[in-house]
Amino acid sequence: MNDLRDKYLTAIAGARDEAALEDLRVQAVGKKGEISLQMRELGRMTPEERQVAGPLLNALKDEINSALAARKAALSDAALDERLRSEWLDVTLPARPRRTGTIHPVSQVTEEVTAIFADMGFAVAEGPQIESDWYNFDALNIPGHHPARAEMDTFYTHRATGDERPPHVLRTHTSPVQIRAMQAQGAPLRVIAPGRVYRADYDQTHTPMFHQVEGLAIDRDISMANLKWVLEEFVKAFFEVDNVDLRFRASHFPFTEPSAEVDIRCSWEGGTLKVGEGDDWLEILGSGMVHPHVLKAGNIDPNEWQGFAFGMGIDRIAMLKYGIPDLRAFFDSDLRWLRHYGFTALDVPTLHGGLSR
Ligand code: PHE
């Protein structure tokens, strides 16, 4: 009996896993196990022998069962410790940066522009990107034969047949929103209209889809002086500087009279674009006093009301502010570019909190 005891207790202590323990249990105390067979022998013993052997065998069986249970518990503790060690996870580590999306510079700049003009009392107006020929051209004093139609590199929704003009275009500018806003709200009026516009043009500073923001202020005594002040205030706030060199150039648009184009001083030296220094100028907007025909198309009486309007390239001013030299890259969806030039989603531009930080 001592041999049996030594044999099993040693084997149990050395068992590597639960399967080995189970084998030992079957061998020792299973139905046909060595100890069970010994117990069957009890029946053939004399009562005296049985009284000695019986309790001893029962005690041995108990001892082996508890050794099995103890070893089993030790093995599962060790397995748990090993799992806790290998599956350890530091939940305080920061999120993986490559999974963080960014705000596109065009969205960022649109928010910045909106915040600045909202502070000057301009509300945001909208219009469709697929626009009728009338809103995009006629209502803006650009009749069918006007050369500006050709200059706009317009995308038409279908080819013209005969004398008939196609009824719809991809809007070539945000100016049709001027008409829609006048019709919807009447005078006095103060709105901006940011959005997508389309022209068949492609080089370092032009893409077939780009963004403009239209501005329109109508009241009884609005003048060019108000236009100049608003644009200067805007440019200073947008570029977050006290002084920016602006150049007002006399120009012509069918929908404004008089008209001015506005350039901003910049340098392209070494392939990097810097605003406020250098001898180059980048055109950022067209502007002027709203033409009486345009007011009429918007159902506003030109004898009672007048106003200024401007249309500015959002992508252009984004390039200038954030030193992005090639406009085409804006719409390539290159993740490396987006990570480099993108903005943190939670940094919402406000005048009080800072536009770009
Ligand atoms: N619509 C003009 C353009 O796209 C810009 C403009 C808007 C000019 C309003 C004057 C007034 O070039």
How would you characterize this protein structure?
The protein has 357 residues and is an alpha+beta fold. The chain has 2 domains: 2-86; 105-341, 2-Layer Sandwich (BirA Bifunctional Protein, domain 2). Helices cover 41% and strands 20% of the residues. The protein is built from 12 helices and 10 strands. Strands 1, 4, 5, 6, 7, 8, 9 and 10 form an 8-stranded mixed β-sheet that branches. The chain has a two-stranded antiparallel ribbon with strand order 2-3. The radius of gyration is 42 Å and the shape is rod-shaped. The protein binds phenylalanine.
Descriptive terms for the model:
357 residues; alpha+beta; BirA Bifunctional Protein, domain 2; 2 domains; binds phenylalanine
Task: Annotate the secondary structure layout.
Layout: H1 2-14, H2 18-29, H3 34-41, H4 47-86, H5 105-119, E1 123-124, E2 130-132, H6 133-136, H7 147-151, E3 168-170, H8 176-185, E4 189-198, E5 209-219, H9 224-239, E6 246-253, E7 256-267, E8 274-275, E9 280-290, H10 292-297, E10 306-313, H11 314-322, H12 335-341
Parallel strand pairs: 1-4
Antiparallel strand pairs: 2-3, 4-5, 5-10, 6-7, 7-8, 7-9, 9-10
This protein binds phenylalanine.
